[in-house]
Specification:
By secondary structure, the chain is of the alpha/beta class. The protein has 10 helices and 9 strands. The protein has helices at about 25-35, 50-60, 75-80, 85-95, 120-130, 145, 150-160, 180-190, 215-235, 250-260; strands at about 5, 40, 65-70, 105-110, 135-140, 165, 170, 205-210, 240-245. The N and C termini lie far apart (about 40 Å). Pfam families: DUF72.
Length: about 280
């Protein structure tokens, strides 16, 4: 029984000296991040298909049980809107192949302009995808959440390929006005998504956005502790990504979330102890 937790990235300047050693070469940063968390969001793949040597390095730095949830390139999801991008899709699939089972799911994040009226387009696209991967879909139009018929149609589109519906829970973040520069920036950029806690598959994926105040972040995720514990009891294998506006404490928060779930679920394996960020000294 395993719960995977992670962050939106594996490298952040504010993590150096805390979660990652100072002066760490770029090709080694993922290896040290993977000592803190056992999953990561692949947001960089949204902007460009990675080079084969980069993906090979990701695989070399992580164990076989590490999970990448890789975002499909925006040319597919936002520019072509899932139509007429076979060449780009093929190039992306070839590029991520070295990850093997580490590519836990390929993530179809759709823009807010992709409405319930476009569900048939999504269904056709999903049917063309190879069954060598799992898939996860994130929608941002409110109609998918407020219209029961639209929600059912989306679930019906996901079911034939066993794709998961990824919730992005921003309810705790938008519960009160921002109090920091990072929160003010996120206030204008992050989507105000209704809460959804229903899993469709045996491998649900959750994205949670808290606040820069740790206590408020922890308070906001309490419903998810119960939900995730319930999924584990049902035999599911969830992945949870912890975000805050500045992400300064995200790796420690991800581990804390794991600890809180583990306190409720007997038999859940602990995360390994992270590597020290600096070598031990005599004084």
């Amino acid at each position: 029984m395993r719960l995977h937790v992670g962050c939106a990235m594996w490298n952040l300047k504010s993590w150096h000296g805390r979660f990652l050693p100072h002066r760490l070469a770029a090709p080694e940063r993922l290896r040290h991040y993977a000592a803190w968390c056992n999953a990561v969001e692949g947001n960089t793949t949204f902007y460009a298909t990675p080079a084969p040597e980069a993906v090979a390095s990701w695989a070399e730095q992580t164990g076989p049980d590490f999970r990448f949830v890789l975002k499909l390139p925006r040319v597919l999801t936002h520019e072509r809107r899932l139509v007429g991008a076979d060449a780009e899709l093929g190039a992306f699939l070839d590029a991520v192949a070295p990850l093997g089972p580490r590519a836990h799911a390929l993530w179809v994040q759709l823009p807010g302009s992709f409405t319930p009226a476009d569900t048939a387009t999504l269904a056709r696209f999903l049917r063309t995808l190879p069954r060598t991967h799992r898939y996860a879909v994130e929608v941002r139009h409110p109609g998918f959440f407020t219209d029961a018929r639209a929600a059912r149609q989306l679930e019906d589109a996901l079911a034939p390929v066993a794709a998961e519906w990824v919730p992005f829970d921003t309810t705790a973040f938008f519960a009160s006005p921002p109090t920091s520069d990072a929160e003010r920036e996120a206030w204008t950029n992050k989507p105000r998504m209704p809460l959804r806690t229903r899993a469709l598959t045996d491998r649900p994926i959750v994205r949670y956005l808290g606040r820069d105040d740790t206590a408020r972040t922890v308070e906001g995720w309490q419903p998810w502790v119960a939900v995730v514990a319930g999924w584990l009891a049902e035999g599911r294998s969830p992945t949870v990504f912890l975000h805050t506006p500045d992400n300064a404490d995200a790796p420690a928060l991800a581990r804390q979330f794991h600890d809180e779930v583990r306190a409720r679920v007997s038999g859940l394996d602990p995360l390994p102890d992270p590597s020290p960020t600096e070598p031990a000294t005599l004084f």
